[in-house]
Write a structure and sequence with these properties.
Blueprint lengths: L17 E4 L23 E4 L7 H9 L7 H5 L11 H42 L1 H9 L4 H40 L13 H16 L1
Helix pairs in contact: 3-6, 5-6
């Protein structure tokens, strides 16, 4: 043994061995191994450099061995979609999207049911409290339809404001949780915070409609 000096300790060390391959390191495309065969280079990451790019055929051959390839040439010039083999994870993604849609529909149904059982009576109590004001509207010639519109517009206004405040509070909480998590050294969240604005708008609309109903 040669003496070594430890200059630092990596927090999350890679699981496999990293190998840097020079020019013409992978001149011959790999061959397909037997199904279920164990290879000695399992967990090894190869960084291949050189003038010869890793083509799509090389990627498919390496995939057949049970390994994955990230090729700059393929990323810059991807193959047609018809030549890309379908991955089982694609079916899982479709199932996940369906489950998400069902979940959102269920949440919307619960919110509407809550509107019938809780929000509606609450606005009815508010209308009774404003009975004198509504009576004054009727005394000056307002029709029953006009009084109903006043109550409905009040529910729409309150529901919209409450939904906007709730959406803004949720976004603030998400930002705070992400900042605190990253400050603690956790890698649970990606560096970029992506907000699904269409989903947020849909929930605001559901809140406004629920309050109006």
């Amino acid at each position: 043994g040669r003496p070594l000096t430890v200059t630092g300790v990596l927090d999350s060390a890679p699981r496999g061995v990293e190998v840097l391959a020079g020019h013409e390191a992978l001149t011959a495309p790999p061959t397909v191994g037997e199904p279920g065969a164990m290879h000695e280079d399992v967990g090894v990451s190869w960084y291949v450099v050189g003038p010869q790019p890793v083509e799509w055929d090389d990627v498919l051959a390496v995939n057949a061995l049970g390994s994955s390839v990230v090729s700059r040439a393929v990323l810059l010039d991807p193959p047609p979609r018809s030549q890309v083999p379908r991955h089982p994870a694609d079916d899982l993604d479709g199932a996940a999207e369906t489950e998400t849609a069902v979940l959102v529909a269920g949440v919307a149904a619960v919110v509407l049911l809550e509107a019938v059982l809780l929000i509606g009576p609450a606005f009815a109590v508010g209308a009774r409290r404003n009975e004198r004001q509504l009576a004054l509207l009727g005394a000056v010639g307002a029709e029953q339809r006009t009084v109903r519109h006043v109550v409905l517009l009040g529910g729409l206004l309150v529901g919209t404001l409450a939904a906007l405040v709730g959406a803004a509070a949720g976004l603030v909480v998400a930002v705070v949780v992400r900042l605190v998590t990253r400050a603690l050294g956790q890698t649970t969240f990606m560096p970029a915070l992506q907000v699904p604005w269409l989903v947020v708008a849909a929930f605001v609309a559901v809140g406004a409609v629920a309050a109006t109903l």
